[in-house]
Amino acid sequence: MSTVAETIARPPVIEMLNAAITSARAPDTAVISGINWIVSLDDYWVIGGPTSSGKSNLLVTAAGLQRPLCGVHRLFGRELPSLREPERLHERLRVGMVFEDGARPFPQLTVAENIALPLRYHRDWNDAMIRQRVEEMLDITGLSAFADSAPLDLMRALIPRVGLARALALGPEVLLLDNPLAGLDPRQERWWLDFIASLASGHPSMKGRKMTIVVTCDDLRPWTSQGRQFALLKGKHFLPLGGRDDLKRCNEPLLHDLTAAHSS
Amino acid sequence: MEDTSTSAPQFPTQQVRPKARLVRAFFDFAGRRVIQWMDRTHELMAFALIATGVTVTKFNVAPRVIRPLIRSQIHRAGVRLLPMIGFLGCALGLIIIGQTVSLLTQIGAHTLIGTLMVTVVIRELGPLLTTVVVLARVGAATVVELGTSRARGEVEALEALGIDPVHYLVLPRMWGLAVSVFALTIYFVLVALLSGYLFAFLQDVPLPPSEYFRQLASALRWEDFAMLTLKTAAFGIIIAVVCCYQGLAKPLRIEDVPNATTRAVVSSVVACVLVDAAFIVAYLLI
């Protein structure tokens, strides 16, 4: 929610203009088309949509991992395909991504090695600095006790935290989370909501800098009190809903479905 | 051929003689196969080019991550395969070389022993057999490994962390397998030649060891060393590239992995034999 002057001064973080996105399995067909979406700095977006409505594809495209079928996609005001490799990598690394379904940790590495991998690959830090950063990440995600275990030996609810810690290790400015609450119990849900809120308002491990957050979900209930901007994916379309107040006034049936309590 | 395939549906089937139909069906089948094969070769070559490009452009990127990976590939494909290669070398030596040596000595052609050994064991059988063993043991496992990690989305996760999957997954395997196949071939050849002589000795073949080794040494030319190095490294790189390609390019679901593995083994063997043929031509030209 930034003013025009601010937008001109600082380009939006993610920008999609009239974009159509595809999936990896069918690269020639559009999953969602006509997306006009601008994520400004320090925004907290929550995007709801039923299962297989293209939430993951939207995030993967937003992160610059997949090219849109048509239309414009900019990261920090720059179109990735037009950049040279080092610059493209630099822009890409400003965006962290936590995948759906367990956040895809690398099973052949230990939890600590998972977190250290991006640091060892991109930073020329010495071992002590890397160890310190890894310990910090383990500490904030509550995984310190499992540093040397294989990620898939962890309790199911803790596995996605490995992916979270790995995505945060490089200190990105934007964090995209794909359905992070899927399959979690209420206590774990609480932890994730609180943690994401603390990242959005400036977490000490990120040098207190506020992070821009984009979350997708198939159940909007826990997020209505968290997000600042909302959107829905409905029938191959991207419907921006506005802020929390607009949410209350909105009478979109899908929104009602995604926020309705279970009727039993 | 184009003509027949486009006009085929216009004829009622009864009017076409069964024999002609069979011929047409065969051509259709063969044509489809050839086109499919060319497509796949084309993609494979593109992948090989990308891998080579990454080798050159990222030669010194993140050595702290890549070098341990190369070492672990050498350990896996080279060091841990030593007993197996030793066993095969012994078997080959005892069964084939030993018999050849004793037969050649019986017919008085023992002056040919050196040439025969160098041609058969050092130039051809050594590299090919070693490659097939490495392919069976490591290549197939590579396809399964990369295929499942592709299907589970871990390759995408690597990209999300700004790590080039070709650099992280393919490069260490290319280098690791090239070094491993080279080293294992040398072991294989040495074990086979020694155990072959042992067998001949046990059969009381009147051939003193000095004569056997003198013949071997005189039959070896400097090209043999250069070619052996080039050839084994090429074989290692071929199986690494083919297996990585099959593992990374196609499977988007776990169910695709078994098919990819079968294809990888078949195309690796075919590619290696073709390259081997190219090396034979090179030998003849030198």
Task: Explain this structure.
Chain A is α/β, with parallel strands linked by helices. In chain A, 33% of the residues lie in helices and 22% in strands. Chain A has helices spanning 4-9, 55-62, 85-92, 111-122, 127-140, 159-168, 186-200, 244-249, 253-259; strands at residues 14-22, 30-39, 44-48, 70-75, 95-98, 174-178, 212-217, 229-234, 237-242. In chain A, strands 5-6-7-3-8-9 form a six-stranded mixed sheet, sandwiched between helices. In chain A, strand 8 and strand 9 form a beta hairpin. In chain A, helix 4 packs parallel to helix 6 (159-168). Chain A is globular and about 50 Å long. The model of chain A has no long low-confidence stretch (mean pLDDT 89). Chain B is mostly helical. In chain B, 84% of the residues lie in helices and 0% in strands. Chain B has helices at residues 2-7, 18-57, 63-77, 82-106, 113-151, 154-160, 165-202, 209-219, 222-249, 256-285. The longest helix of chain B is centred in the first third of the chain and has 40 residues, at 18-57. Chain B starts with a helix and ends with a helix. Residues 1-8 of chain B have low confidence and may be disordered. Classes of the chains: A alpha/beta (264), B mainly alpha (286). The A-B interface holds A 24-25, 60, 63, 65, 89, 92-93, 96-97, 99, 104, 106-107, 117-118, 120-122, 163, 166-167, 170 and B 62, 64-65, 149, 152-154, 156-157, 159-163, 168, 252.
